[in-house]
Structure formats: structure tokens, C-alpha cells
Amino acid sequence: MRKLLVVNLFAIFFLVGCGMSEKDKTEISQITCNVIEATRNMDAAQRIKEVNSAREQMGEERFLGTDDEIKESVGFGLCVNLVRNDENYQSLLETKKEEAEIKAAESLLELQRLAEETQRLAAIEKINGPCSGMWEDTKESTEATIEKLGRLPDYCENYTADFVLSLLRQIKYEEIDKSNYMVEVCYDFEDYSVLSIQDLKLSIDWNSQRRNEGAKLCEKEPFDITKEELEFFSEGIKLQCQKNSEGCHEDWIAEG
User: Fold this and answer.
1) Do 159 and 118 share a domain, yes or no?
2) What is the pLDDT of residues 161-179, one digit of tens each?
3) What is the number of domains present in the chain?
């Protein structure tokens, strides 16, 4: 009988000495957090009570923090770590906060980038509008002429690289009236000086695509003179901004 008592006492001391397993602690903490997160309208006192009840079961120190700390742990996905009283909880929390700050900063930068991108495209579209509209009008007029007269309109002859390059040379050497509609809406340096070099390239590409839609309708081969147009615009914009830099993009001022 005495031997049995000694064995039982040894078993009790062994169990107490080992304490609760990490698995059991995690399960108790998880259940507690599930209750906290799932129970609607749980007040602050009840949340603190739930945490301390779990800690008591695990033989951990009492939670002496605030309800805000509990809600913070839930928000950062660290509720189990808080309830379980992990030694590295504060370190984990700081890491989560830093990650959240970085993510928030990245989100803000992305929003700013999208806003700037929207402004950029709006500026290009505003400047390109009249020229693009001219190509669209020409396209509609061509379609109407073909339908009514069964032939291509005379201006279809203008849908060639040679014609456009000739026009650029006339503008460059001031051999053409600036009141010419195409010159006014498509080749006004002052309009394009507000764009960066990158955006100017995009603008030229857009108009080139529309022009080639018209060329195709006029049964002309599509052509690419975007390189020549970029050189033409760059030279003209630089000269324009040297005379008056107001409203000019910094790309042209720096390069001018």
C-alpha cells in the first residue's frame, strides 16, 4: 500500500513538473480566440476575462494589459500568441506593425502612381483629341464617299509617308501657313511642350495608329514615321521652350 502511494505521488509530481503540452496550450488559445472573434457585442471586460481564463488553465501569468491590446492582437493575427503568453509576442507584434506600415506606404505610392498615370493619359488625350478627331472624321468621310460615289476621295493620296514628311519639312522651314488645319491641330509645338519625352512618344504612337487606320481605308500601305516625327517635335519643342519656358515640361527645359 505504501509502495502504491509513493508511485502515485511520483506520477503527480511528474505531471505537474512537465506542465501542459504546447499542443494543448495552442488549442486552448485558439478556442479562446475563436470565441473572442466570433462573439458579437462582446464587451471589453468579457474579452479580458476570456484571456485570463485561458491563461489560468495553462498555468500562465495573468493578462494585465488592456482590451485594446487584445483587439490589436486579433487585428494582426496574433491572438493565439497573446493568449498563450508567448515570450516573443512583442517582437512578433512589432514585425507585423512594420509590415503593415510598409504595405500602407506601398498602397499609398500605388494610388499616387495611378492618379499620376490618369492625369498623364488625360493630358495626352486632351492634346491628341483634335488631331485624333481629324483622323476619325477623315475615316468617316472616306467611308461615306466610297458608299455614295463608289470611289476613293481625292485626299486619300495624302495617306503616304512622303506626304507627311513633306508636311513636316514645310512646317520646320515655315513654308506653310500655320493656320492650316492639320498644322494647327496636329503639329503645334506649344500644345505638346507640356508633355514629357515619354508621353510625347505615346502621343505620336496614338496618332500614328489612327492615321494608318485611314491609310488602310484609302487602300494605302501603313507606314511608320514615328522616329522622324519624334525628332521633328523634339527639335521644335526645344526651340519653343527656349523662347518661353512657361508651361514646358522639365524634360525640354533640361535638354534645351
Assistant:
1) yes
2) 998 899 899 988 888 876 7
3) 2
Whether residue 143 is found in the same domain as residue 249: yes
71/186 same-domain check: no
Q: What are 4-38's pLDDT values in tens digits?
A: 444 443 444 444 445 689 999 999 999 999 999 99
In tens, the pLDDT along 184-226 reads 888 888 888 989 999 999 999 988 998 888 888 889 899 999 9
Single out the residue of 195, 198, 203 nearest to residue 250, CA to CA.
Answer: 195
129 and 46, same domain (yes or no): no
Identify whether 53 is part of a domain: yes
Residues 135, 60 share a domain: no
In a domain, 38, yes or no: yes
The domain containing residue 204 runs over which residues?
Answer: 114-255
The rounded distance, in Å, linking the Cα atoms of 179 and 173 is 15
